[in-house]
């Protein structure tokens, strides 16, 4: 985890004033209040002399356990929620700043230590269960194509200028996030479009950031292991909109049942998008095939290379962002019409004998259903639809039987396999998936994902369509705590090329 280093040391008094203004400050213990702080971190192992350590009650461990270690390594001040016993006596040279919410304090302090880079950027935040990465990529390409230098933060990677960094989280922790924003201002970027996950909102990773535009895509089942209930999940997403000022714009999908609730308490100017008559930004699907979509958006016809009705919403949301920025509709649509392939999102591979394989990141029941339906609607008659999928370990168990049911209902042939089992037993995950299926015996069950893809390649007939779902751009399989290289796109190319390139007749040699 990175450390925030300011241009010049920051007086602790400034930190206290800001925390007080935010209503977070409770008490201050200790004598070091006149000190200047050289860096900020929430990881005790990264503390150096004259640092500020924020103790966070984490998902795995409680950062308060490492206060002593942080002070031994040179922290002169500690921010936390509970004052350790006899702090002043045990650590006479340090100060303890008690706050009501350490995660929130960390977010706000990260903006100070990185000199508030977000103030020099137009921040565009995208939230929702599905479509965040796609919509963020669309906005990124659209704005850069029309000459507005824009950075990107999301699941696949972080991009700005000529830099592309691997993503740690969809929405990184506040120190890394503000560091990225600071680097973007150096490009210089005008805008930053970022995915804002529900985990990030719950954990205050975006605290202290002011979004100019926030987009809601949709809300269906995911992450209930973490949030506990659908209501709590909705509430976490809603925080993005509740935090907007009256100067911001909230774009919401009016066709999604949770759309209106999402913006119910926002101060921002709300703009709805969707197919409904009363949508302020409206589209109609004019045509869709395996080659792409034709939409009528606000009365203008445009073709796009993205497949699937769900992508019509992502395109509309991206267009809405451009409209909220006051940009020319024709320019926006023309730019969106030329978007490149988004890594691992409905990525299509066609083979000589007419077989098609599609690698897609669908890892929720709703996404899997949408993708399978889409393929069904546009695939050639007489062809069979295959679905190779699995469910992540240490993630929402409830979605497993639902995904089993969806795959069985919509595909002709199902191969269940592993998708990042993490510390769980893949066979137990299979058992959970099996619970949702009526005829589990009709499916193939293959723990080894590479072998499952090979089976699909071997068993499908020329002209069939094979969906390999769940991992999209991911180039690894997480087994235990190890990340083993594995790339669906590479495997698909390798195995399908092997089984679906018709053998050429041997060339005749004339002697
Ligand atoms: C479960 C979870 O969300 N964990 C996230 C969380 O970690 P945490 O702060 O709770 O970490 P922890 O390990 O319990 O440690 C608590 C504190 O003790 C500190 N510590 C720990 C050890 C030590 O020796 N000294 C020390 O000071 C740690 O630095 C930390 O401050 O905060 C970290 C920084 O913000 C995240 O990187 C981390 O994401 C983990 C890696 C993760 O897998 N998260 C997933 C579930 C996630 O967030 N996913 C969403 C996307 C979901 C979607 O796409 O729909 C995302 O935004 O990526
Ligand atoms: N608007 C949408 N509605 C429903 N399903 C969608 C939508 N957009 C994409 N999908 C499906 O969901 C999958 C994930 O899409 P995407 O990566 O854009 O979403 P995400 O919200 O970023 O997901 P994650 O939270 O895992 O990062 C896609 O591969 C596709 O199958
Ligand atoms: N952002 C999602 C991605 C899931 C992708 C899937 N491949 C899995 O590992 O379950 C998560 O962390 O739950
Ligand atoms: Mg994403």
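Sequence proposed for the structure above (511 residues):
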């Amino acid at each position: 985890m990175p450390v925030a280093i300011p241009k010049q040391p920051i007086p602790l008094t400034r930190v206290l004033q800001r925390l007080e203004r935010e209503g977070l400050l409770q008490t201050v213990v200790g004598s070091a209040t006149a000190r200047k702080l050289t860096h900020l971190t929430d990881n005790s192992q990264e503390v150096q002399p004259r640092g500020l350590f924020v103790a966070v009650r984490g998902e795995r461990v409680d950062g308060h356990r490492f206060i002593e270690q942080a002070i031994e390594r040179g922290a002169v001040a500690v921010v936390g929620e509970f004052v350790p016993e006899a702090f002043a006596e045990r650590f006479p040279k340090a100060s303890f700043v008690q706050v009501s919410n350490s995660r929130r304090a960390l977010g706000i302090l990260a903006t100070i230590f990185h000199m508030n880079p977000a103030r020099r950027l137009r921040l565009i935040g995208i939230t929702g269960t599905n479509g965040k990465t796609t919509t963020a990529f669309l906005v990124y390409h659209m704005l850069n194509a029309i000459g507005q230098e824009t950075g990107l933060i999301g699941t696949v990677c972080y991009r700005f200028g000529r830099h592309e960094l691997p993503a740690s989280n969809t929405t990184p922790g506040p120190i890394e996030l503000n560091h990225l924003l600071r680097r973007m201002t150096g490009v210089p970027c005008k805008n930053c479009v970022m995915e804002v996950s529900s985990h990030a909102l719950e954990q205050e990773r975006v605290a202290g950031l002011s979004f100019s535009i926030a987009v809601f895509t949709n809300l269906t089942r995911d992450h209930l292991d973490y949030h506990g209930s659908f209501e709590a999940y909705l509430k976490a997403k809603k925080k993005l909109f509740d935090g907007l000022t009256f100067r911001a714009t909230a774009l919401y999908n009016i066709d999604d049942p949770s759309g209106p609730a999402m913006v119910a308490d926002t101060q921002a100017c709300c703009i709805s998008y969707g197919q409904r008559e009363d949508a302020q930004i409206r589209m109609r699907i004019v045509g869709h095939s395996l080659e792409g979509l034709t939409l009528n958006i606000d009365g203008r016809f445009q073709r796009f290379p993205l497949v699937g009705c769900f992508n019509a919403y992502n395109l509309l949301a991206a267009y809405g962002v451009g409209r909220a920025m006051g940009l020319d509709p024709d320019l926006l649509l023309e730019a969106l019409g030329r978007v490149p392939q988004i890594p691992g999102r409905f990525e299509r591979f066609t083979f000589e004998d007419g077989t098609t394989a599609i690698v897609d990141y669908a890892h929720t029941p709703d996404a899997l259903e949408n993708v399978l339906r889409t393929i069904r609607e546009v695939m050639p008659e007489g062809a069979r639809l295959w679905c190779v999928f699995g469910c992540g370990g240490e993630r929402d168990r409830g979605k497993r039987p639902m995904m089993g049911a969806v795959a069985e209902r919509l595909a002709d042939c199902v191969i269940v396999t592993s998708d990042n089992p993490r510390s769980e037993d893949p066979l137990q995950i299979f058992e959970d998936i099996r619970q949702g299926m009526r005829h589990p015996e009709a499916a193939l069950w293959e723990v080894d994902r590479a072998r499952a893809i090979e089976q699909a390649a071997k068993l499908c007939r020329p002209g069939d369509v094979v969906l390999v779902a769940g991992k999209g751009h991911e180039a690894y399989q997480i087994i235990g705590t190890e990340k083993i290289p594995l790339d669906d796109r590479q495997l698909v190319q390798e195995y399908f090329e092997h089984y679906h390139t018709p053998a050429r007749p041997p060339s005749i040699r004339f002697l």
